[in-house]
Structures are given as C-alpha cells and as structure tokens.
Amino acid sequence: MSALSKYDAIRFRLQVVSLLRLLKKIYSYRELSAMTGIPESVLCRYVRGQTIPSLEQAHEIKRRLEENTDIRKIVASRVEHLLEGYVDLTQVIGDPSLLRLMAYYVTMKLAGKRVTKVLVPETNGIPFATMIADVLEVPLVIAKRNKDNPYEEYVEANVVEPSIRSTITYYIPRRLISRRDSVLIVDDLIQSGRTIRALAASIEKLGAKPVATAAIVAVGEPRVSIPQPLIVLLHLSEPSRLARV
After folding, report:
1. What Pfam families does the record tag this protein with (predicted)?
2. What is the chain's pLDDT, residue by residue, as a tens digit (245 residues)?
3. Does 127 map to a domain?
4. What contacts 178, CB < 8 A, 6 or more positions away?
5. Same-domain status, 65 and 89
6. Which pairs from 233-241 meet CB under 8 Å and 24+ separation?
7. N or C, fewer C-beta in 10 Å, the chain?
8. With the CA atoms of 113, 35, 133 and 73 taken in that order, what torsion angle do they form, in degrees rounded to the nearest 10?
9. 172 & 132 share domain
C-alpha cells in the first residue's frame, strides 16, 4: 500500500463509502455484507453517512468489492449489440449512477498514480470522462473536432483510419495542458487504439505525460501502443464490423 497524504487518505475513505452507496442501489445490505465481510449494521452506518471506515478497512472493503463485484456484468447488461456488429452504449452513458460507479472503479484502479487532467475526444465518452474528472477532482479537457475559438492556439491529434481511408483531426487547446500535467485519456469505445495513440502523442508534444487509458468498452486488442495501464469496464471479441452509435 503506497503512502497517502492525509487529504488523499480521507478522500479515499469517502470514495469507498460513495461506492457502497452506489452498490446499495443494486445489492441488498445482506448481499453487500457477504461481499465485504462487514456486518449489515456497520454498512448501514457507512451508507447513511453516520461514520466512515478507517483507511485500513477502506482498503479491505475495496479489495473485497473488486473480488466480488462484477461491474463488467452490470455494464454488459446495458450494452446493446445491434445488426452488423454495431454497439449501442446509450443505456450506459445515460445512467448517472452507473457512470459514477464506473468512475469509482477507474479511480480506484488508479490509486497511488498522479493524475492532474482528464482528456477525452469529442465522442460519447464525454459523460464518462466528466464523472471520472469529478471523482478525481481534476479538470476535464475535451479534444474537439473543430477549432471553435479563432483566438485559441491548438495542438492537433490526427487519427488515420486505414479501414475507412479517412483522417479525423482533434484539436486540443494548448493552454489547458502544461508540462507539469499527468494526463488520463478516456474514451467510450476503443477499437484500433489509434485515437488514443494520437491523443497521447499530442500530450507528449505539449510536454505533458500520458499516464493511463480508460474506456467503457474495448473491442479486441489495440493494434497500436497506448498509455498503460489500460482500464476497461468491458472487453468484447472483435466482430466483422463495429462502429460507434
């Protein structure tokens, strides 16, 4: 267990309580007790905000929840597979409680890692990235599909997709990412990984450091190198044709 500052330790303990509150919407106290090893009466006090677990107990609850909570199954139940391999994430990105649950899952996987900015391309991943930034208490930066401010200076992230013979360009405001930043890149869906790779290259061009990648769904394995660790809620085998909806 890495050493945490007093503030980070308290924040982590509160994050665990928030996670319990979110899971209470899915599981009963009896089920949560079986998953965590904590008596129902104590869990009830945590969920109601009457007390919070110690740091040691919070880590133990986190460990047990990771072992016993199949968040991937919850996400999978909301992902719709349409004709010709299309995937619809509407029920996932439209559910604030699920988004926050996924955000806590990601941030706990990042425990001990320094993140100062969250970067997301202008896609359906914005709600997910917003929730992660909120939990981490860091700014959100959106790489947009056009230069919407003529007075802004941008760095470009060019994504070349050979399969559709086209190039998509994202624009990141230079002033929003500095050399001191450690950046988490977030997307809704990772297929080839080329979007993440292009954004990571732009972050490095700005002198900052891409430290991890998070996504709701990954299809197959990325075909290019992307910032690790890669934190994904649901892995899907690669169909013959798949696109965002």
Report:
1. Pribosyltran (PF00156)
2. 456 688 888 988 998 998 899 889 889 999 999 999 999 999 999 999 999 999 999 999 988 988 888 888 889 888 887 555 578 899 999 998 899 989 989 998 998 899 999 999 999 999 999 999 999 999 999 999 999 999 999 999 999 877 667 899 999 999 999 999 999 999 999 988 999 999 999 999 999 999 999 999 998 888 899 999 999 999 887 654 444 43
3. yes
4. 206, 207, 208
5. no
6. 233/71, 233/72, 233/75, 233/102, 233/105, 234/72, 234/75, 234/76, 234/79, 235/72, 236/87, 238/191, 239/85, 240/84, 240/85, 241/84, 241/85, 241/86
7. N
8. 110
9. yes
Structural domain boundaries enclosing 186: 85-236
Same domain (yes/no): 59, 130 = no
Structure tokens at 138: 């860091």
65 and 185 both lie in a single domain: no
As given in the structure block, the two tokens for residue 179 are 């050399």
The token pair that represents 234 in the structure block: 């649901």
